[in-house]
Structure formats: structure tokens, C-alpha cells
Specification:
By secondary structure, the chain is α/β, with parallel strands linked by helices. It contains two helices and eight strands, in the order ααββββββββ. 17% of the residues lie in helices and 30% in strands.
Length: 122
């Protein structure tokens, strides 16, 4: 019986590590081109740039970055200068999200430091 419990725990851990969070489930570049929900803001990564460059949100808003570069383009990160967040390298179609604290947050891509942006949380 304990072997079954151990096996079940291993299977659950395997799937939970690989599944996207609720904000990322089903998000595509086409969806990011549409208006966001009331508690979400989209930042599209495309053409080696963050669009919009400055994202203004109210406290509690989830900011979602989605890499819409063509397949084969080098990956990007979204990395807060303050260390508030740091994504893994996002390849085409990958998504990262965070709910930043109040204040102004400058960020950049670790792979391409010339790519910069700002999130302003009021």
C-alpha cells in the first residue's frame, strides 16, 4: 500500500511541476493581442522588444509576458532590476507572469540587455 502512495505522490509531483499556472493556461500570442481581463496586463515580446515598453497597472494586477518571436529566435527573459522577479529563458510561445508590488519596476532581458521595460504599479 505504501508503494502505491509513493508512486501516486511521484506522478502528482511530475505533472504539477510541468503544468502552467492559471494565468498561463491556454494563453497564445493571438489572445495577448486582445484586451486583457480586469486583473491582467499583457506584455508581448516580439522584434527583440517588450510591448508596451511601459506597463501601468493597479496593485494586484497580474502582468503576463508572452514570447511571440518566431520559432528559432533566441529566447528572452524578463528580469526585474530590483530582483523582484526573474523568469527562466522564454522561447517562442512561452509565458511568464508575476504580480508586482506597488512602485516602479525597471526590467530587462538577461540574454539581450538592450531590451528594457518598466512596470508601474499604483
Amino acid at each position: 500500500l505504501w508503494v502505491c502512495g509513493l508512486l501516486l505522490a511521484a506522478v502528482v509531483a511530475c505533472f504539477s511541476e510541468r503544468s502552467a499556472g492559471p494565468a498561463e493556461t491556454g494563453l497564445t500570442c493571438a489572445r495577448a493581442a486582445q484586451p486583457p481581463g480586469p486583473d491582467t496586463a499583457f506584455v508581448v515580446i516580439q522584434g527583440f522588444a517588450f510591448t508596451p515598453t511601459v506597463t501601468q497597472v493597479v496593485a494586484g494586477t497580474r502582468v503576463v509576458w508572452i514570447n511571440c518571436e518566431p520559432s528559432g529566435t533566441p529566447g528572452h527573459t524578463t528580469t526585474a532590476v530590483s530582483g523582484a522577479w526573474d523568469s527562466r529563458t522564454l522561447t517562442s510561445g512561452d509565458v511568464f507572469s508575476d504580480v508586482p508590488a506597488a512602485g516602479s519596476h525597471d526590467y530587462y532581458c538577461r540574454v539581450h540587455p538592450f531590451m528594457t521595460g518598466q512596470v508601474v504599479v499604483q
